[in-house]
Amino acid sequence: MGAAYRASRESGGKPPLAQGRWEREWRRAQRLHPSGQYAFPKRGTGRRLVRLTQSLIAGIRSGDNPSEALMLMLDLTLRRDPRIKKAKKVRDIIESRLDLWEQGEKGKEILLQKATKISRRAHSSSRRRESESRSKREELEKAAGLPEMRKFRNFIQAGEMRRGTRILTGREKGEVLDGEDTFTKRGQTY
What we know:
Elements: H1 2-5, H2 16-30, H3 43-62, H4 67-78, H5 87-102, H6 105-144, H7 146-157, H8 161-169, E1 184-185, E2 188-189
Antiparallel strand pairs: 1-2
């Protein structure tokens, strides 16, 4: 503790039970799906966040707050909501989160619930987009004939010219190729 915060842990701080509560809340926030953080705000909101951060660091140095309190506050107040992008709305949401933090235990619980909701929403929508894009990509590849081209390339690289050519031409048995046989991929002749 002394090396990390340049202060020794003084006796007379919060009882271990209260410190365990901070750790539980911090662990609960850490289990959420990461959604990134907003940049540190400027203007009055930034000054307010800096003052709150300073008071938490002073509490850590005096032994009133555990280090999890600072990490939890920064995580919950700066957690990115994928739906909010405009600077004014970002400032407003950070202001409202700071208000909730300063309300005490009830406000912190509301912040944790909101962070959980944001995490679930971001995680489920990212999985949905990922599966949709994967199926769409597979459809496009199949329409362009990429699976056959991959098989052809793999057989040619393995030295199996006949098997590769059969796959590309769609012939079952080895036949003599005509001069008019074409190998096309997206309209290009090879």
